[in-house]
Amino acid sequence: MKESRHDKIRVLLLNANDGLTTSQIAKQLGSTYKSIQKTMNNIYGVYIDRWDVPKRGQFAAVWMCVDVPADVPHPKDRYLPKPTTIWQENSPYKKLQ
């Protein structure tokens, strides 16, 4: 199984003060543009800061990364019980079970 590039990309973006385009990230990691673009759509904590116009006139997304603190609390009530309605409590079908 291949090693995930998510952490490498996140470190690159955190070290780049002005952000990086997908092409710049691909060059630094020695990967293809298409591969990095697919990865960028699945990484948490990265966002498009602005759009640049490179040489050929196509817009290029400049990606940035959010610095997530280490002491962020984890949500404890992720799966809350679903509330029951009065109709569900008084249902004749519930008595059959």
Care to describe what's here?
By secondary structure, the chain is α+β, with helices and mostly antiparallel strands. Helices cover 36% and strands 15% of the residues. It is built from 5 helices and 3 strands, in the order αβααββαα. The chain has helices at 6-15, 22-29, 33-40, 86-89, 92-96, and strands at residues 20-21, 46-52, 60-65. A 3-stranded antiparallel beta sheet has the order 1-3-2. Helix 2 crosses helix 3 (33-40). The radius of gyration is 23 Å and the shape is elongated. The mean pLDDT is 81.
Give the N-to-C terminal Cα separation: 48 Å
Overall strand count? 3
Q: Tell me, rounded to a whole number, the average pLDDT.
A: 81
How do the strands line up in the largest sheet? Answer: 1-3-2
As a percent range, the share of helical residues equals: 25-40%
Low-confidence stretches: none
Number of helices: 5
**Cα radius of gyration in angstroms:** 23 Å
Instruction: Please state the structural category.
Output: alpha+beta
Principal-axis shape: elongated
**Element string (H = helix, E = strand):** HEHHEEHH
- Share of residues in strands: 15-25%
What's the main sheet like? Answer: 3 strands, antiparallel
